[in-house]
Design brief:
This protein has helices spanning about 10-20, 60-65, 80-90, 105-115, 155-165, 175-200, 210-225, 240-250, 260-265, 270-285, 290-310, and strands at about 5-10, 25-30, 40, 50, 55, 70-75, 100, 120-125, 125-130, 135-140, 145, 170-175. It has about 300 residues and is an alpha/beta fold. The strands form two sheets. The chain has an eight-stranded mixed beta sheet, sandwiched between helices. Strands 4-3-10-9 form a four-stranded mixed beta sheet, with helices on one face. The chain is globular, with a radius of gyration of 19 Å. It binds pantoate. Pantoate (PAF) binds near residues 188, 191, 192, 202 and 253.
């Protein structure tokens, strides 16, 4: 029997998944609004491929009966994930495995707590961006890790990792997904808010002008990571290891516009709540300093609040 995958959220990763899984599985790509069936993918080698994808709106889905999917992949932004699941929860059995692809650490613990079926979390460094309603560019290959927060669904994570690997993702099932999500969040917290506030590409953070701010953010983040039991990266120690990782990512992505900067430029809500929120909450819980992180959160919140003001 062909495995069926529903992909909820036709953003860059959602469409990349749909293109990759479609040749080998039954894929349904679901969005709030209608999407063209003919979709284009530009591969990292620059090749253009088109595929007819099975696209549905949430409303269409609700008005018809469907065979239950083997997996639902939620590929929305972090703050939209719970509402997205809610929007289809009536049309799938509550035992359906969910796969959460969000940044940060907001949707993952919440959905793990409330959804009766298995909840897997995925973290990926695949690079992709949209080029309008019918195109996605797979900009760079990366690695994908899959696991669940309570380590209860190892076999399911393994099965999905194998399927995704056959589909062209380098996917591995892991038993430390919580650490991996927090590690990514640490890097995101050090890069995303700063570049979004200053309107610069990631590589600018190498400049001396930003050194003090990066150091101050990493100092707070490193202490929070320690309190959360997240090991410093690459076998290193404390703050220095976290700073080295941040600078390595800045170097590797020097030419990128980080996702939060893209959101600010497009006047979309950012993922600050999913990235800075859990860090601030953890610092409060453990009695650690978080003044620098709070200031970043306030500044981004002010920027977002200004979207509507300057539009009127
Ligand atoms: O959010 C992003 O854009 C990326 O996670 C990162 C690491 C900041 C690189 O751009």
């Amino acid at each position: 029997m062909t495995t069926s995958h529903w992909i909820l959220g036709p953003g860059a990763i959602g469409r990349l998944l749909a293109h990759s899984l479609s040749p080998m599985a039954a894929v349904t790509l679901i969005g709030r609004r209608a999407l063209a069936e003919q979709q284009w993918l530009t591969t990292p080698e620059g090749e253009q491929k088109s595929q007819l994808l099975n696209t549905f709106t949430v409303a269409q889905l609700a008005s018809e009966t469907h065979a239950p999917p083997a997996f639902v992949h939620i590929t929305t932004k972090a703050m939209a994930a719970e509402a997205a699941l809610e929007s289809i929860s009536e049309v799938i059995p509550s035992t359906t495995p969910q796969v959460l692809w969000q940044n940060g650490f907001l949707a993952q613990p919440r959905i793990t707590q409330v959804w009766p079926g298995p909840v897997l979390c995925a973290t990926t460094s695949e690079g992709a961006y949209l080029t309008g309603d019918d195109g996605v560019v797979h900009a760079g290959r990366g690695a994908t890790f899959i696991g669940d927060l309570n380590n209860q669904h190892g076999a399911l994570a393994e099965a999905l990792a194998q399927t995704l690997t056959q589909a062209g993702f380098a996917a591995t099932a892991v038993d430390d997904i919580r650490s991996r999500l927090w590690q990514k969040l640490a890097v995101n917290a050090a890069i995303n808010p700063l570049v979004a506030l200053h309107g610069v590409r990631n590589g600018e953070l190498r400049e001396a002008a930003y050194a003090g701010r990066v150091k101050a953010i990493v100092k707070e983040v490193a202490a929070i990571m320690q309190a959360e039991g997240i090991q410093p990266p690459n076998g290193g120690h404390g703050e220095d290891a976290w700073r080295a990782l941040v600078l390595q990512v800045v170097e590797n992505t020097a030419n990128n516009k980080a996702s939060m900067l893209q959101d600010v430029e497009a006047r979309r809500p950012t993922e600050r709540e999913a990235i800075l929120g859990p860090l601030i909450e953890s610092a409060q819980h453990h009695g650690l300093p978080y003044g620098v992180l709070q200031a970043l959160d306030d500044d981004i919140a002010a920027l977002e609040a200004g979207y509507s003001e300057s539009a009127t």
